[in-house]
Specification:
The complex is a heterodimer of chains A (300) and B (352).
Chain A: H1 2-11, H2 30-58, H3 63-68, H4 79-87, H5 89-122, H6 128-137, H7 143-156, H8 161-186, H9 191-198, H10 203-214, H11 216-232, H12 235-240, H13 250-260, H14 265-299
Chain B: H1 2-15, H2 18-22, H3 34-70, E1 73-74, E2 85-86, H4 90-97, H5 102-145, H6 152-164, H7 167-177, H8 183-190, H9 206-231, H10 236-244, H11 249-260, H12 262-277, H13 281-285, H14 298-308, H15 312-336, H16 339-342, H17 346-349
Antiparallel strand pairs in B: 1-2
């Protein structure tokens, strides 16, 4: 049912919320409640956006301007703060690393997660619920509990750099993916399989030719969640990507930059603002998917 | 795979007419040989489940078990693990009350027990405050945004944005804003109030509250979005009926909307509890829990002492305690709170 829930919310998310005939909108007191809504919304937006705008504008200041006049408009306007960062290859390398890690993590999570969710959803075999239970306990193991031994394990396996980041991230992304996808795959009608088998298609053929295309909305949803988790990840990069800033991902790059230029606050602001842009663009493009994924996961 | 496929299809024409009736069990491909069918089933299972299971057992389960093993040793992570001293539950005893050895007890109380207990109390503080403050706040915002007003969908998107930003970006941003000479101090001075003298985060009491404010800023969007999704499932007829009966807006919310999104609220509380216990990234970015650990959490303390001070045995014990805490909380919550939502057929009642 999660599948249908996700699907319906995806197609008509808000339209059903408040049909135009809403009665109390005409009743007395409705105006007051509406004003309350607008006031709360304005305060919420100000508190949310205020600091972000301050950060972006702060990136245009000189250090002196920031300390003498932190609330005014920047004067002079230092476009070069942003320009210098963009002219340096470190920022671009880090962005590329983050992108590479996030794309490969997402691909791995979605591929292996869907493959595992398929038999857990649609096969009948002994031990199915047991295996599913093993994956669900994964939600109880946060990365922080496992991170010290994981670090040693990766060293023993000879993994380092970005691959050492991608492989465990896939592993930690699997439980959520399987938990979301299993009910989704289960909701597809069983007749599909019967018809396919009748036509002599094997299970594997069914998986590739029919299930994957049909499961695409669910796969996009879990993929988006995995991508965000990887893009924002900090703990593993902190342990694994030491040394050259060019080999780091963006979140670790920010804190490293912050350590290197501790006194140049405005440069840190510019760097952080630039690092924020890809995440915000992705968020605006995928907002519907993210919300559906999260609410679907919670309802599922 | 292609080979398997063709061999699978190859058997079918021969079995032809008999098979569909005989292999009537749902979800079974047509086959005339039960034993070969079973063999192929296990082959397929290995193919589909194998990679995920291997990754999960190697990189999630095995490290967690290793953590439990390391926690029984005095080990610095540099020497070979074989050379580490087995000390039983001593690491746990040190964390809880300074250890059982009288000679080192007072030193270990200062070195281990006190910082751990501080971190523990901060974590519990955040856990409780999240429920006491973020829940009503998130609920209020969601109920109010559930009304129609111009720009509503834009407001939803904006309020949710911080949740998607990385902890590092949000933490760095607030670190600059709450700099002792930063804009927060300036604003406080401008309205004639006195900011904490030693700095926002450095202050022993302010530090914790500032961090809690930042956490709320970052995570309240999730609560709002989840509650709004829950509210969108409440039938409009109920609210219309209440309005006809003369219920005020607040009465409608209190008697109809809030009870009806109970399942969503309970799930959010669950996520919030677990998230609070495991809170790491944000606090780490905010000066790693504070220079004197004034707002450290269990996870930041674990990283500090385990990884950066090479006390791996003790760090692993902290990790196990953190896991036990979230496990106990989760089990109790699922047993006593979520049970009524979650019985055997949760998905049948979820959505009309």
């Amino acid at each position: 049912m999660t599948a249908t829930a996700t699907a319906t919310t995806a197609s008509a998310p808000h339209k059903s919320v408040a049909p135009p005939h809403r009665r109390y909108a005409r009743g007395e007191g409705a105006g007051r409640a509406n004003w309350l809504s607008i006031c709360v919304a304005l305060v919420g937006v100000a508190v949310t956006l205020g600091p972000i705008i301050y950060l972006v504008v702060g990136g245009l200041r000189t250090q002196q301007d920031l300390s003498t006049n932190p609330t005014g408009l920047p004067s002079p306007v230092m476009w070069s703060n942003y320009g210098d960062i963009l002219a340096n290859d470190v920022f671009w390398r880090q962005a590329a690393n983050s992108l590479l890690v996030a794309v490969l993590t997402t691909a791995g999570v979605v591929l292996f997660g869907t493959m595992a969710a398929y038999p857990l959803a649609r096969y009948r075999f002994k031990g199915r619920e047991g295996i599913f239970m093993i994956f669900t306990t994964g939600l109880m193991f946060p990365l922080s509990v496992a991170v010290l031994p994981l670090y040693l394990l990766l060293k023993d396996l000879g993994l380092s750099g970005l691959p050492a980041l991608i492989v465990p991230q896939i592993a930690f992304g699997l439980p959520m993916t399987i938990i979301i996808l299993r009910p989704f795959l289960r909701a597809l009608p069983m007749e599909l399989e019967e018809a396919a088998f009748m036509d002599g298609v094997s299970r594997i053929g069914f998986f590739w030719r029919m299930l994957l295309p049909l499961a695409r909305p669910g796969m996009v949803t879990v993929g988006v969640l995995a991508f965000i988790a990887s893009w924002n990840a900090y703990l593993l990069p902190l342990l694994l990507l030491t040394g050259d800033p060019r080999g780091m991902t963006l979140p670790l790059g920010i804190t490293t930059f912050q350590g290197q230029y501790a006194s140049a606050t405005t440069l840190i602001m510019a760097y952080t603002s630039l690092a924020m842009i890809p995440a915000l663009v992705f968020f605006l493009l995928m907002e519907r998917r993210i919300v559906d994924g999260l609410t679907g996961a919670v309802k599922g | 795979m292609t080979a398997l496929e063709t061999s699978g299809t190859g058997t079918v024409p021969a079995a032809g007419a008999a098979a569909p009736a005989a292999g009537g069990a749902l979800g079974q491909p047509v086959s005339d040989h039960p034993r070969r069918a079973r063999l192929r089933l296990w082959g397929e299972l290995a193919l589909f489940l194998g990679p995920a299971l291997a990754l999960f057992l190697t990189f999630v389960v095995y490290p967690v078990i290793s953590a439990a093993r390391y926690s029984l040793y005095q080990w610095n992570g540099v020497e070979q693990f074989e050379d580490a001293d087995f000390i039983g539950l001593e690491n746990y005893a040190r964390a809880l009350f300074g250890g059982t050895d009288e000679a080192t007890k007072s030193a270990f109380t200062t070195a281990y027990a006190e910082p751990f207990q501080a971190a523990f109390s901060h974590t519990i503080g955040i856990l409780v405050l999240s429920i006491v403050i973020q829940l009503p706040l998130g609920l209020l915002i969601a109920l109010v945004l559930n009304r129609r007003f111009p720009g509503r969908s834009a407001v939803r998107v904006i309020l949710f944005a911080p949740y998607v930003l990385s902890e590092v970006i949000a933490g760095t941003m607030w670190l600059i804003i709450f700099d002792p000479n930063g804009v927060a101090t300036e604003l406080m001075n401008a309205v004639g109030l006195h900011p904490p003298a030693g700095g926002w985060l450095e202050d022993q009491t302010w530090g914790f509250w500032v961090v809690f404010f930042i956490i709320t800023w970052k995570y309240i969007g999730l609560a709002v979005i989840l509650f709004l999704a829950g509210l969108s499932g409440v039938p409009q007829e109920l609210q219309d009926a209440a309005a006809i009966d003369g219920a005020s807006w607040w009465q409608t919310q209190w008697r109809i909307n809030i009870p009806l999104i109970g399942p969503t609220i309970r799930i959010w509380v669950f996520l919030s509890l677990i998230g609070s216990i495991q809170l790491f990234d944000m606090v780490w970015v905010l000066n790693q829990g504070g220079t004197t650990g004034q707002y450290s959490t269990i996870a930041t303390y674990m990283m500090q002492i385990g990884f950066f001070r090479n006390d791996w045995g003790f760090g692993s014990a902290i990790a196990v305690i953190m896991f036990m805490l979230s496990f106990v909380v989760a089990v109790f919550y699922v047993l006593f709170v979520l049970r009524r939502d979650n019985s055997d057929a949760p998905r049948k009642v979820k959505r009309a």
